[in-house]
Specification:
By secondary structure, this protein is α+β, with helices and mostly antiparallel strands. The protein contains 9 helices and 13 strands. The strands form 4 sheets. A 5-stranded antiparallel β-sheet has the order 3-4-5-6-11. The chain has a 4-stranded antiparallel β-sheet with strand order 7-8-9-10, with no helix packed on it. A two-stranded antiparallel ribbon has the order 1-2. β12 and β13 form a beta hairpin. α3 runs antiparallel to α4. The protein starts with 7 loop residues before the first helix and ends in a 16-residue tail after the last strand.
Length: 350
């Protein structure tokens, strides 16, 4: 079709389009402008807007209820109550309720804010030119002059006694806030250095709750023990077992390389802390051919035939050993407490 056969108005549009294409081709970075705004259903239907409003209000109300539940959990649930919750297993009901209610409260606020912004707030894009953010030179000069006048009128330069005592007061007053940290909990004192193990405490098998006898521990086996008198229904069981959990391994005496380990063992039965010295994870993986134990958290590896020294991984020091013997009843017993703190290093360690 020739240009003579094209109507005048269509010819004009075609020429403008072609001319625009040439401009874009000449300048590939030309500003294309903002796309045309497409209204949402909430913009044109008030009933849809009301539904979105009720949804946002429901989410915010849910957050408020969850926050009230978070506060109530501190009052309702005891610290030591353990329940079974599928699929998590046995968990602390207090920790579970605090985590659940706080998670719901934060999620509901975020979801409500997002839904509000996406459905009810204006979504029209607006372009604005950049502008200088610094003040005009005249304004800057006036501010500096006013500051200099204020400093001169305050006499800080001449009244050194006032200046120094003011600095001292401002430096010391934050210590009041530091002292409030004292109420965050009791001081650890010697609690991190001591465990329930003591002279004469029998080693109780954690699987059978019966005293361990030397014949119960076979060469190459791994058994876990806790101190006599500690029960799982005790109020402070978790705190105490975190320091007193014990690994019992029987190694042929001729395979024990460390002299002190051999002296503190009984007929090749050695007892080491089960708590990893990296971040306190429980150790449970034992390789009887090499006498190595592996922490499953960060793969710290200890040689139980050589004083439980670290041979691999981020752990900082060897596992503490417990000196053991046999009592008159033929049961394994502790001959004292660990000589060093159990688990990872802590701030109070000297």
């Amino acid at each position: 079709m020739s240009s003579q056969e094209i109507p005048d108005e269509n010819l004009s549009i075609a020429q403008d389009t072609a001319h625009g294409a040439v401009e874009v081709a000449d300048n590939p970075f030309a500003d294309p402008g903002l796309p045309a705004h497409k209204p949402r259903i909430q913009d044109i239907d008030e009933r849809a807007a009301k539904r979105s409003e009720r949804t946002v209000a429901l989410l915010f109300t849910l957050s408020m209820l969850a926050t009230i539940g978070f506060i109530a959990s501190y009052v309702v649930f005891p610290v030591d109550k353990i329940v079974y919750i599928w699929p998590f297993g046995h968990v602390s009901v207090l920790n579970f309720s605090l985590g659940l209610t706080l998670g719901v409260a934060l999620f509901a606020i975020g979801a409500g804010a997002v839904h509000w912004a996406r459905t009810l707030m204006s979504d029209v894009e607006v372009a604005d030119d950049r502008h200088p953010i610094e003040a005009e030179p005249e304004v800057k000069a006036k501010v500096l002059a006013d500051f200099a006048d204020g400093a001169r009128e305050s006499a800080l330069g001449r009244r050194k006694l006032i200046r120094n005592t003011m600095f001292g007061a401002l430096a010391l007053v934050p210590l009041s806030g530091v002292m409030l940290l004292r109420d965050l909990g009791p001081l650890p004192e010697k609690k991190l250095r001591k465990s329930l193990w003591a002279q004469g405490k029998q080693l109780i098998n954690m699987n059978t709750n019966e005293p361990l006898r030397p014949e119960d521990v076979a060469v190459g086996s791994l058994t876990f023990a806790m101190p006599e008198g500690l029960t799982e229904d005790a109020e402070d069981f978790n705190n105490q077992i975190a320091k007193a959990a014990l690994m019992i391994v029987r190694i042929r005496p001729e395979d024990i390389k460390d002299k002190r380990e051999r002296e503190w063992a009984h007929d090749g039965i050695v007892a080491f802390s089960k708590i990893c010295t990296h971040v306190g994870c429980p150790i449970s993986l034992y390789e009887q051919q090499t006498h190595h134990v592996l922490c499953p958290c960060h793969q710290s590896t200890f040689d139980l035939s050589d004083g439980a020294r670290v041979i691999f991984g981020p752990a900082g020091h060897a596992l503490p050993q417990l000196r053991i013997g046999v009592n008159s009843e033929g049961n394994l017993e502790a001959l004292g407490d660990f000589e060093e703190p159990v688990g990872p290093a802590f701030w109070e360690r000297g």
